[in-house]
Amino acid sequence: MTPSRVTTSGGSASPDGEDLNARLRLGALHLFETRGFDATTAEDIAQSAGISRRTFFRYFPVREDVLFSDHAVYLLRVEERLRAAHGEPIRVAGVALDPLLDGLVDDADFVVRRSVVTRENVALRDREVLWLREYQQLLGTFLAEQDLGARSAIFAQIVAAAILAALSQVIDRWLSAPQSEDPRALFAELVDEIAESMGESGLRGRGPGAEHPERTGVVVINSRLSADEIAHLIEGARR
């Protein structure tokens, strides 16, 4: 099931809707921390935010999505940036993720607490992977379209997964040592390295070939990969 992208009951962002989303996220997180995910119902979460169970399900078709409602907003902002962007495609894809990076950094306390709860529950981990896949599909589609069909759709997804793995690595590193370095600068450096290691030759002429003109794929890279491991993966994909 694809994660819900609804940000308000009307389907578009508004101050009231964003405030309710925040109440729902925080209320759900507190309940998951204190009671556990399995012991918390949608009605419990709704009551914590002062709404009815019916209203809750207008926002979220499943409980799991409530912790990730911020991603619905980030995805829209990333998509808007990709539509308006110009320049070298890989770097454009990296810059387009700035709203996500900024949001995670600015909301560090929630992100840390959410990661603890998510690690302890398979359903939440699966939901997190689905959200990661949404970003990857968005970036991968953008990258595949930049060369008028000459790029391999699979390779474009690998590039997108590498960019997201770099972002996850930066966030994990920053959360463990917030004063160590600027996460935005580090991510920009990693995106530059990914772009330079591939180059134009790495993105052209390496499609699936005439026998499989419509081959597509989705690759989700473990967020714990280091920058060196990401580079190694990219090199392997180019051969």
Overview of the molecule:
With 239 residues, this protein is mainly α. The protein is built from eleven helices and no strands. The relative contact order is 0.11.
Largest sheet: none
Number of strands: 0
Assign the structural class, choosing from mainly alpha, mainly beta, alpha/beta, alpha+beta, or little secondary structure. mainly alpha
This entry's quaternary arrangement is single chain
Number of H/I helices: 11
Q: Which runs of at least 5 residues are low in confidence (pLDDT < 50)? A: 6-15, 204-223
List the secondary-structure elements in sequence, H or E. HHHHHHHHHHH
- Average pLDDT: 80
What would you report as the Rg, rounded to the nearest angstrom?
19 Å
β-sheet strand percentage: under 5%
Helix content class: 55-70%
Span from first to last CA?
Answer: 34 Å
Coarse shape: globular
